[in-house]
Specification:
The complex is a heterodimer of chains A (311) and B (426). Chain A has 311 residues and is mostly helical. Chain A is built from 15 helices and no strands. In chain A, helix 12 runs antiparallel to helix 15. In chain B, the strands form 4 sheets. A 6-stranded mixed beta sheet of chain B has the order 6-7-8-3-9-10, with helices on both faces. The chains are: A mainly alpha (311), B alpha+beta (426). At the A-B interface, helix 10 of A face strand 6, helix 2 and helix 4 of B.
C-alpha cells in the first residue's frame, strides 16, 4: 500500500502544476482512508459495543460510546451466566490448555520433521513434502469427519485428548521449519558439528535446536492461533460444557439467547446475555492472541544465526 | 621426489551425483606426512567434493580414501581424526569463542584441565585471548576466521582440511592470513589439504599443488614445476598471473633449427635447435603443422634491432606499475581456443566467441612484463625477443605439452579422458 502510494506521489512530482500534485495527494489519502475505515471500523465497533447497555444497543448508533459502567455490568452478567459457574473463565482456561498443548506438539513434531526433510535424503522425501504442502491448504474442517471416526475408535469423543491430539497435526509447522532450515540454516554448521564429534541426536539437540529461536515464535504463534480459533472440531468432539473451548462456549452461549437470533427458542428473554455481553466475551477471547502476537513479534526481528557465517 | 609415508591417499576416487554429474573422476593421489597440499581449479572442478569425501561429509561412489593406514570410506567424520576449516567458518553462533574452540574436545571426553590448556594455547597462538567470552556475531571476519582455525588446531588431528578458508576476507587480510596459516602448518607439522580457486593462493601456500578441472586431475607438482613445466594447455593457462600467452603457430623444421610461422607474410621466428634441448626432436615431427605456442609475460624483452628471432609488434597499451611495466601488444597469429577461452569469450560477446571457434580471429593480444625503466609507449612499433628456453609448445589436438620423449610418456593423461581442446583451425 505505502509503496504504491509513494510511487504515485513520485509520479505526481514529475508532472507540472501544484494543483495536479494536490489532487494526486488527495486521491492517495482518500484511498488510504477507505482502507482504514474498512479494516478498523469492525474492531472499533467490537470495542464500543459493550459500553452500550443492552436495550440501547438495538437502537443507538453502533459507533457511539455509552458508559464505562456497562463494561462492568456486561462482565458481571457473563460471570452470573449459568448459575454463576464463571463458565467464560473456565472456557478461557480450557482454550489455553488446548492451545499450549497444540504449540508444544506442533514444535516437537514439526521442527524435527522439517529438519529431516531439509537436510536428509531418504526415499519418499519429496512425496512427504508434497503431501505436507497439500495438507497445509486443506481446510481443517474437511478433516473433521475422518478425525471424528478415528477418535471414536479410540474412545476419545468427549475427552480433552480428542481435541489435543489432532492439533499435533500441524503441517504449517513442518513447512515453516523446512523453509527455515533449507534457506537460512547453514549446512556447513552440520558438517562442522559432525567433524567435531557429534552424533545425529546430539547434533540436533546441541547445535540445531538452539538456533531455531527465530522460527519457533512463528510456529508457536500460528499453532496457538489455529488452535485458539478452531471451532468445528472441538464443537464436534466436546460434549460437556466445562470442557468447551472459548469459541465453542461463546457460540453455545449465544445460541441460548435471543441476542443474535431473536427467534431462539431457549427462553432467551430471561437470560442475562445480550449483545454487549457477547461482544465483551468476544473481546475476552481475542485478548490472548494479541498478547501472544506482541510477544512473538519481539523475537521475529532477531537472528540467532548472526556470526555463524560471513555476513 | 621420494616420500617416506603417505598420510592421505586417494585410489581411483570417483564421485557421481544423483543427477549423473561426474564431480570427481578416477582421482589418484598420495599426500605425504606433514605435507601442505593445495587443490586448485575453476569452480566445478571437483576440488571441494574431493575435500568433502575426505571429511566424510559426502559419500564416495567408487574408489578409496585412505587416511594413515586405514580405508575410511565408511568411517563417520568424527572418527576420521580430521579437523576442517569451512569457507563460511561454520562457527556455532550460540556459543562463545571459547566454547566454539572447545566443543570438539568436550565431545571427545578430554579432561577439563587439558581442554583449558589447549584452548588457552590456541587463543595465544591466534591472538584470540581478548575475545574468548564473545560470540561469533561480535567478531570481525578475520577474527571469525581465526576462531575457525583455533577450533581445528586444538583438536591436534591427523589431517587438516581447509575449504577456501580465506575467500571471505578482504585482499589485505587474505595475504596476511596466507602467511600465518602456512607458518602455523609448518610449526604443527600437520598434513593439510587446502582447497582454493585462487591460483596465487595455491602457488604461495602449497608444498605441492594439484590442478583439477572437471573432476580430473590435470597435474600435480611443486609450484615451480607447474609454472615452468605445465603438462598441458589448461595448466599453462591457469597457473600464473598475468597468464601465459597462447597463440597458434605453424612449425617448420629448418636445418638444425625450428622456425615458428606466424602470419603468412611474416618471415617467422627462428629458434635455435640447441635452445630447445630434448624437445627439438619431438617438435621437428610437427613440421608443416600447427601447434600451440606459449610464453610467459616475463619472458619477453625489448630488442634493440630486428633479427630472425625477434617479433615486430605494435604496443597497444601500457600499465605502469612502478617497478615493472605491463605491455599489451598484438601478435599476428590466432589465439589458442580452449573450452575455457571460448567460454570466457561467450560471456562477453557471442560473435567473438563464434569467430574464435571458427578460427577467424587472426590476431592475439599478448601481455609482456618489462622493467619499469623500459622506454616504451602506446603506438610504438618495437622488436620483441622471447626467451627461447622458456617457450612452451602444446599439441593442438590433445592439449598436451610437446616434451622430450621421456617426459611426455609420464604426462600423458588416461585415454578415457579427452582433453577437450578444439584446434582453432579445425
Amino acid at each position: 500500500m505505502s509503496a504504491w502510494a509513494s510511487s504515485a506521489l513520485r509520479l505526481s512530482h514529475q508532472r507540472s502544476g501544484r494543483a495536479r500534485r494536490l489532487w494526486v495527494r488527495l486521491f492517495v489519502y482518500a484511498v488510504l482512508a477507505v482502507f482504514i475505515i474498512y479494516f478498523a471500523v469492525p474492531l472499533v465497533f467490537l470495542l464500543l459495543a459493550p459500553s452500550q447497555g443492552s436495550s440501547e444497543a438495538l437502537n443507538a448508533h453502533p459507533l457511539q460510546f455509552g458508559s464505562i459502567h456497562f463494561y462492568w455490568r456486561a462482565w458481571s452478567n457473563l460471570m452470573t451466566y449459568a448459575n454463576g459457574q464463571k463458565l467464560l473463565l473456565i472456557w478461557g482456561l480450557n482454550s489455553l490448555i488446548y492451545s499450549v498443548a497444540a504449540v508444544v506438539l506442533a514444535i516437537v513434531i514439526g521442527v524435527p520433521a522439517g529438519y529431516s526433510i531439509a537436510f536428509f535424503r531418504f526415499p519418499g522425501r519429496r512425496l512427504i513434502l508434497l503431501v505436507t504442502l497439500i495438507a497445509m491448504v486443506v481446510p481443517q474442517n474437511a478433516l473433521v469427519l475422518p478425525l471424528f471416526i478415528g477418535l471414536s475408535y479410540l474412545h476419545l469423543i468427549g475427552s480433552r485428548w480428542g481435541v489435543i491430539l489432532p492439533s499435533g497435526f500441524f503441517p504449517l509447522a513442518v513447512v515453516l521449519s523446512y523453509i527455515y532450515f533449507s534457506t537460512h540454516f547453514p549446512r556447513q554448521l552440520l558438517g562442522a558439528a559432525r567433524i567435531d564429534g557429534c552424533g545425529e541426536l546430539r547434533l540436533f539437540v546441541r547445535v540445531v535446536v538452539p538456533l531455531t529461536k527465530n522460527v519457533l515464535p512463528l510456529i508457536a504463534f500460528f499453532s496457538f492461533w489455529a488452535s485458539w480459533v478452531n471451532y468445528f472440531l472441538p464443537s464436534v468432539i466436546l460434549n460437556q460444557v466445562t470442557t468447551f473451548s472459548l469459541p465453542v462456549g461463546i457460540i453455545n452461549m449465544s445460541a441460548a439467547t435471543n441476542a443474535i437470533i431473536p427467534s431462539a427458542l431457549n427462553g432467551g428473554l430471561g437470560s442475562p446475555i445480550g449483545r454487549p455481553e457477547l461482544a465483551e466475551a468476544g473481546l475476552f477471547s481475542i485478548l490472548p492472541i494479541i498478547i501472544i502476537f506482541a510477544f512473538s513479534q519481539k523475537f521475529l526481528t532477531q537472528s540467532p544465526l548472526s556470526g555463524a557465517e560471513k555476513t | 621426489m621420494l616420500r617416506a609415508m603417505a598420510e592421505l591417499e586417494y585410489k581411483e576416487l570417483r564421485k557421481v551425483f544423483d543427477d549423473g554429474t561426474v564431480a570427481v573422476d578416477h582421482l589418484s593421489l598420495s599426500v605425504a606426512d606433514s605435507e601442505f597440499i593445495v587443490l586448485v581449479g575453476p569452480s566445478g572442478c571437483g576440488k571441494t567434493t574431493t575435500l568433502m569425501m575426505t571429511a566424510g561429509l559426502e559419500t564416495i561412489t567408487t574408489g578409496e580414501v585412505v587416511i594413515g593406514d586405514s580405508i575410511v570410506n565408511d568411517v563417520p567424520p568424527k572418527d576420521r581424526d580430521i579437523a576442517m576449516v569451512f569457507q563460511s567458518y561454520a562457527l556455532y553462533p550460540h556459543m562463545t569463542v571459547k566454547d566454539n574452540i572447545a566443543f570438539g574436545l568436550r565431545r571427545r571426553r578430554i579432561p577439563r584441565e587439558e581442554i583449558e590448556r589447549r584452548v588457552a594455547e590456541a587463543a595465544r597462538t591466534l591472538d584470540l585471548e581478548p575475545y574468548l567470552k564473545r560470540k561469533p556475531g561480535e567478531l570481525s571476519g578475520g577474527q571469525r576466521q581465526r576462531v575457525a582455525m583455533g577450533r581445528a588446531i586444538v583438536r591436534r588431528p591427523r589431517l587438516f582440511l581447509m575449504d577456501e578458508p580465506l575467500s571471505n576476507l578482504d585482499a589485505k587480510l587474505r595475504v596476511q592470513m596466507r602467511a600465518e596459516i602456512k607458518q602455523l602448518q609448518r610449526q604443527l607439522g600437520t598434513t593439510t589439504l587446502y582447497v582454493t580457486h585462487d591460483q596465487t593462493e595455491a602457488m604461495t601456500m602449497g608444498d605441492r599443488v594439484v590442478v583439477m578441472r572437471k573432476g580430473v586431475l590435470e597435474q600435480v607438482g611443486t609450484p615451480q614445476e607447474l609454472y615452468h613445466s605445465p603438462s598441458n594447455l589448461f595448466v599453462a593457462g591457469f597457473i600464473g598471473s598475468p597468464s601465459m600467452n597462447l597463440i597458434t603457430v605453424g612449425v617448420e623444421a629448418e636445418a638444425d633449427d625450428v622456425v615458428i610461422q606466424l602470419d603468412p607474410g611474416n618471415p617467422g621466428l627462428r629458434i635455435r635447435g640447441n635452445q630447445l634441448g630434448p624437445r627439438l626432436r619431438k617438435l621437428r615431427q610437427f613440421h608443416g603443422t600447427a601447434v600451440a605456442m606459449g610464453f610467459r609475460p616475463e619472458n619477453v624483452t625489448v630488442a634493440t634491432e630486428a633479427a630472425d628471432d625477434t617479433l615486430r609488434v605494435e604496443i597497444q597499451h601500457v600499465e605502469d606499475l612502478g617497478s615493472e611495466r605491463i605491455i599489451y601488444f598484438g601478435v599476428e597469429a590466432p589465439p589458442v581456443v580452449t573450452e575455457e577461452t571460448r567460454q570466457a569469450a561467450a560471456d562477453v560477446d557471442e560473435i567473438v566467441a563464434s569467430d574464435l571457434t571458427r578460427g577467424q580471429v587472426g590476431r592475439t593480444v599478448c601481455v609482456g612484463r618489462v622493467a619499469g625503466d623500459t622506454m616504451i609507449s602506446v603506438g610504438d612499433r618495437v622488436e620483441l625477443r622471447l626467451n627461447p628456453g622458456r617457450i612452451h609448445f602444446f599439441e593442438l589436438e590433445t592439449g598436451l605439452t610437446v616434451a622430450g620423449d621421456d617426459a611426455s610418456a609420464q604426462l600423458r593423461r588416461p585415454a578415457s579422458h579427452p582433453a577437450g581442446f578444439n584446434p582453432a583451425s579445425a
